[in-house]
Amino acid sequence: MDSGLLLQLAFGGIATGAIYALVALGFNVVFKSTDAINFAQGEWVMAGGMMAAWIHQQFAWPLLALVPLAVVCVAVLGLVSERLAVYPLSQPSPMSITLVTIGFAIATKALVMLVLGKNPMSLPSFSGVEPIQIGGASLQPQALWIVGLLLATMAGMHLFFERTLLGRAMKAAAADREAAALVGINVPRTVMWSFVIAAGTGALAGIIITPITLTSFNAGTVLGFKGFSAAMLGGLGNLPGALVGGLLLGLLESFSAAFISSKYKDAVAFIVLLGLLFFRPSGLFGRAQVQKV
Amino acid sequence: MHAQISAATYRGLGILWLLLVALPWIMPNSYWLNLATLWLTNLLLIASLNLLMGYSGQISLAHGAFFGIGAYVSGVLGAKYGISPWIGLPVALAFTGLVAFIVGWPTLRLRGHYLAMATLGFNAIASVLFVELRDWTGGPNGLVNIPPYAIFGLKLDSDRAFYFLALIAVGVAMLLLLNLLDSRTGRALRALSTAEVGAECMGVNVHKYKILVFVVSAMLAALAGCLYAHHNAFVSPESFDFMASTMLVVMVALGGTGHWWGAFIGALIYTVLPELLRSFGDLELLVYGVSLVLVLLFFPRGLGGALDLLRERVLRLSTRRRARKGTP
Amino acid sequence: MDDGIVEDSIADAIIEVRGVSVSFGGLTAVADLDFAVPRGAIKAVIGPNGAGKTTLFNVISGVQAPSSGRVLLAGEDVTATAAHERVQRGLARTFQNLQVFSGMSVLENVVVGMHTRLKSGVFNALLRLPSGRREEVQARDKARALLGRVGLAAKADFPVSALSFGDLKIVEIARALASEPKVLLLDEPTAGLPAGEAGRVAEVIRAINAEGVTVLLVEHNMRVVMAISHDILVLNFGRRIAEGEPAVVRAHPEVIAAYLGTDADAQRMNDGAVGTAHV
């Protein structure tokens, strides 16, 4: 077996996997604070990429200006969505929040389509297009940016949740809403922040992947559900799980495309995923939920 | 979540069906007839998903896939092998039921978001198969030449003929569903949907009932698929993808998850909204998204729940008025 | 053990717990517990909060699998039997924090209890066969009668959301009775009831027992426990610390120490006046 080929497949899988992991992180942040599945996560990733691409296309701004602007815009979108439709919910059950995020997802997709158009758009690679040659396989530099962002985001989130007051408050609220409220934590506020963070990091992810994948208004759907799958695989709510789940899914796709069939790669990946989940339903790193009677 | 099925519910269904029978004479325009036919198919889809979501309390993202399996099995049997749609129907239902059983058995044992994930994965797998099994399904361009239903050589492909076929099929299905819900089985379902552990400890085999609901809802979706395939004469994979499944979940939520009449309202919205927004083109999607959010905000029990509240208010007002007048 | 009957089971014990331990991660809720419930008796399980009583009920009823040990029901090993199956075999229970079916009326809740005793299945339901309809009417009548026995006939058609916690605990008893059990597990039946009501429930339990139903109950109301129990098991930290007739248990030093710790308060315990209401 040609080691160069294997390495190539591995690089491809890791790059794709890192994208899924980034989306999965967003799912986990919202899940941790609401127990709900955020269907809009994929759309926020898409929106970030689209915004940045559009600004670049219209105004040719440099990256350094583009990135914060697009991230802030989408983070605000997340904030507004939460304030308008999650906060006022009279019964904020996980099911109703999940359903509301479906509404967000559809609305966001439609907004992007109406405002930014239906054409696919792209961004230039951050550090050129010359592939790097390693051990008989070539790696796109943008892929390194993606993996780098993934690691940075994970480190950032870890620090945030472990070291900052707000982060710890969010963890507490996620663990036990009532107890957190009793010790003075503003629980609805933590929910708001989780949406903002999920939207912001999602947007950042979207910007970083656009140079490789191109983006268009309907790119969010597939990203969303692959990202969700990665999050489930790693264990919903588990941040390192998102990393492992995403990479595993990316590698599964890459290798099954090569060794089984590129047409059936999605089916194979899902079959393996569902099989794994059947034996560990709470995901590779998730904790089973205990029900008290 | 679920109001007790009562004689009033049966009466309501009966009256509605009578009106629907009279429809071709009340509104002879074939445009309305086709719309009503579409509404009937959508009702099957949404009512069956409503059953599942209402009683398992979880989201299923596989309904589009079951719709598709029904459509393709019956469609392929008719288009490629010349088998009568009347035989294709039970075959499609049985096959879909079996698939649902296999998917549901391990899945429904587990809690949490596993059902959403498994059904999402299953729909993704089904979508791939609809496209890739070209020899049967016709690939991404779809399956053509699906024959219509026929009785003694008489093809039921005119608008009116098919309308009545759909009316009978969907009517029977809804009646059976109502019977199921107003029974010991229905009561067990309602029990397990509100206090699962309590139900299990009262002797309800929760796992068995969850699978029952999953299989029944899948088979009803397959029935809708058969009707759709043999009326449209053509099916393609996009009608059964993730987007389709998600929209069905949205419609159930809009109508009111678990609410009997909510499914009727959801089906109405699903059928009529595209028509209303046709002239707005791209805005359709935005309206869907925004209206879902608005309905969930102001009517947490969906539009069906809103109707209930309205009815209660009217009842209270009329009772008060009668009390004031002195009549008991 | 060919037909599930365990050879050395105690002849007249309707429930036997053998070497049952339950651990959740690092926490041991029940530790190597052995005891039996004599057929026809009213046996109480008492102990401070956190002693493992509800966990024990969960193991016996099949909601919780033990980490080790066995549960026998009428001589048969049911450790691996599903909870709904155990109802079929004559075990019914109520819940400390209620598992009532919201959205249904009180009457319907009780009818659910009859699930294992009714026959009509899916086929019968779909076609609305007359035998099924007849069965339904009979079931409702029986349920109404049961509610009458526990004093809730007037509220039979109320939605459960309209009833107090205490009333709902009684609904659960009626519901459990509806399954025609051989043994009834009652988890804190008098919790949440106003002072006078506890006595009424105690009488209901006595009446049920008089009809041949064995009762195992978890209770904190010592007056009730001392008044109606034939046999008491005392748990602390998941272990048995005493077992026997009320008079014996009441004077047992370890029991007194577990609850109260001092001699002065022991006097109150002896008068059966300690009725800590843990809501």
What's a concise summary of this model?
The complex is a heterotrimer of chains A (293), B (328) and C (279). Chain B is mainly α.
Describe the structure.
The complex is a heterotrimer of chains A (293), B (328) and C (279). In chain A, 74% of the residues lie in helices and 2% in strands. With 293 residues, chain A is an all-alpha fold. Chain A has a two-stranded antiparallel sheet. In chain A, α2 (41-59) packs across α9 (219-234). The radius of gyration of chain A is 19 Å and the shape is globular. Chain B is globular, with a radius of gyration of 20 Å. Chain B has 14 helices and 2 strands. A two-stranded antiparallel ribbon of chain B has the order 1-2. With 328 residues, chain B is mainly α. Chain C has 11 helices and 10 strands. The radius of gyration of chain C is 19 Å and the shape is globular. In chain C, strands 6-7-8-3-9-10 form a 6-stranded mixed beta sheet, sandwiched between helices. A 4-stranded antiparallel beta sheet of chain C has the order 2-1-4-5, covered by helices on one side. In chain C, 38% of the residues lie in helices and 22% in strands. The chains are: A mainly alpha (293), B mainly alpha (328), C alpha/beta (279).
Describe the secondary-structure layout.
The complex is a heterotrimer of chains A (293), B (328) and C (279).
Chain A (H helix, E strand, L loop, with lengths): L2 H32 L6 H19 L3 H24 L7 H23 L15 E3 L2 E3 L1 H23 L1 H11 L1 H6 L4 H27 L5 H16 L4 H21 L5 H15 L14
Antiparallel strand pairs in A: 1-2
Chain B lengths: L6 H20 L3 H27 L6 H19 L3 H23 L6 H19 L1 H4 L12 E2 L2 E2 L3 H23 L2 H11 L1 H5 L5 H27 L9 H14 L4 H17 L6 H16 L3 H24 L3
Antiparallel strand pairs in B: 1-2
Chain C lengths: L12 E12 L2 E12 L3 E5 L6 H9 L6 E6 L2 E2 L5 H6 L2 E3 L12 H8 L8 H6 L2 H20 L15 H13 L5 E5 L7 H16 L3 E5 L3 H7 L2 E6 L2 E6 L1 H6 L1 H7 L3 H8 L9
Parallel strand pairs in C: 3-8, 3-9, 6-7, 7-8
Antiparallel strand pairs in C: 1-2, 1-4, 4-5, 9-10
